[in-house]
Write a structure and sequence with these properties.
One of its GO terms (molecular function) is iron ion binding. By secondary structure, this protein is an alpha+beta fold. The protein is 15% helix and 28% strand.
Length: 473
């Protein structure tokens, strides 16, 4: 085994779980194998000062290794995850394991992704659990660490795919695909000595021993859409224990990120009320997304999200068509199940919603602090002042976005009100508003909001709260 001099690396670099099978001739078993044990290559090398939150070294050390046959080098990072992070990931996957699938081919170009679909295969007998992008603060921290390790923008990271190999389960020789420039695999547990479960690169003559918290990174391509066939690999079966890991794939195209289009000055509301203070309006300027969305494409049909600025200080934006009616109906149905995400499409929709909300308020996704599903029915008559005071108690993010998931009649209540501005937004499925809200210690003008209850029926919606600034791992 060749292990190059260590290179300190500021750690870490989204799509379906689509592992492309190797379509080249059967790879012969290597006659000579270099076995790389991350514990051995880091022996005697102190990990350095640990981050108190993650338990991970503040400066990660990556070791460059190659196989007995030479060829491309891989990066091994022995201390990529902390103990609490590992336990958190395993807890997220508990009860969510499904049989792993494989793709039916390899993308020839970025336009051919429609030709690849997933299916069960004897070539892969493990179980998988797809995490949501930014599912928790810990997942978010890991995703950012991956992006830094790979040197690739976070927008290109696919959803993290956890895998579980029971004794005898495996993934035969395959290539991750020319549409994935880099792969990082993270081992979540140790296996008994001699129990198998290694990752084998037969063309390189290289075998990686699974070690808890260790990450291995490699490049899958020689250039754009040029796969490196030397990087085919296998997930060898464990003999008696269960092996856990995380597949982290970087795609060659952004994973449905949304950007703003149009202008922020398309619509201005002059309420006639002073902006400072918290006066309660006695008259309301009503915004109806049905009237405003004419000519505005659904974000579903475009990667562009149009927002209208309806107030400047404090800033308030409106996206008349943040969701299509179909998307809003799916999310409303999920609200009745307590957001139990049962399939990949549902998870992808929730992830897309978070990205669009992020674009609406102009805050990066890593600032997302809380997602809250709201289902409100008629309530006992309560004076407006009490409702407003309740709304002022902002416990979470400085920036808030809210999207309506169903329609209510104009006189049916359920509207979103901004008392300082004399502005109210009617409940229209797919319409979203974003604003800067109050939070202790944060200065600048903020918009007080009032979520009115419906007069009859129920009003469905989703709140997303964003911090003022991102935290670092």
């Amino acid at each position: 085994m060749a292990a190059a001099a260590e290179q300190p690396s500021q750690s870490a670099g989204e799509a379906l779980e689509q592992e492309a099978l190797a379509d080249s001739p059967q790879v012969e078993e290597p006659t000579e194998i270099a076995i790389v044990d991350p514990v051995e290559i880091a022996a005697g090398d102190e990990p350095g000062e640990l981050d108190p939150r993650s338990g991970v070294p503040k400066v990660l050390k990556a070791y460059s290794v190659t196989g007995a046959n030479g060829g491309p080098r891989l990066a091994v990072v022995p201390h990529f995850l902390g103990e609490a992070e590992i336990e958190h990931l395993l807890a997220l996957a508990e009860g969510c394991w499904e049989p792993s699938e494989v793709g039916t081919g390899v993308y020839r170009s970025a336009d051919e992704s429609k030709d690849l679909f997933n299916t069960l295969s004897f070539r892969r007998t493990s179980y998988s659990c797809m995490l949501e992008p930014f599912q928790t603060s810990i997942v978010t921290s890991i995703e950012h660490r991956l992006a830094r390790l790979a040197g690739i923008d976070l927008d290109y990271l696919e959803p993290l795919n956890m895998v579980r190999y029971a004794p005898g389960q495996l993934f035969k020789t395959h290539h991750d695909g020319r549409f994935r420039p880099k792969t990082v695999f993270i081992y979540l547990n140790d296996l008994p000595e001699g129990d198998g479960g290694e990752t084998l690169f037969p063309e390189l003559g290289l075998q990686i021993v699974p070690r808890r918290g260790c990450a291995v990174m490699w490049a899958n391509v020689l250039g754009p859409q040029q796969d490196d066939r030397r990087m085919v690999h296998q997930g060898l079966p464990p003999r008696s224990a269960v092996k856990y890991g995380v597949n982290c794939f970087f795609n060659d195209k952004k994973m449905k990120a949304y950007r703003l289009a149009g202008t922020d000055t398309d619509l201005r509301v002059d309420s006639g009320l002073p902006v400072p203070g918290a006066g309660i309006a006695t008259r309301w300027r009503t915004l109806d997304a049905t009237e405003l969305r004419a000519g505005v494409p659904d974000a579903l049909a475009s990667d562009q999200l149009r927002r209208l600025q309806v107030a400047e200080a404090p800033p308030v934006w409106l996206a008349p068509a943040l969701l299509s009616r179909g998307e809003a109906a799916v999310l409303a149905a999920l609200a009745d199940t307590g957001m139990q995400l049962e399939d990949l499409q549902q998870r992808e929709l929730v992830a897309a919603l978070q990205r669009r909300m992020s674009a609406l308020v102009g805050r990066p996704l890593e600032c997302l602090e809380r997602v809250e599903v709201s289902r409100r029915g008629p309530r006992a008559q309560t004076c407006e002042h009490q409702l407003q005071e309740e709304a002022y108690r902002a416990k979470f993010g400085s920036w808030t976005a809210f999207v309506f998931l169903n329609d209510l009649d104009e006189d049916g209540g359920g509207e979103l009100r901004f008392p300082q501005l004399g502005l109210q937004v009617l409940a229209r499925a797919g319409c979203a508003a974003g604003w800067r809200g109050p939070r202790a210690g944060v200065g600048g003008p903020c918009a007080m909001h009032l979520a009115m209850p419906p007069k009859f029926g129920e009003r469905y919606g989703v709140f997303c709260m964003f911090r003022e600034a991102a935290t670092t791992s």
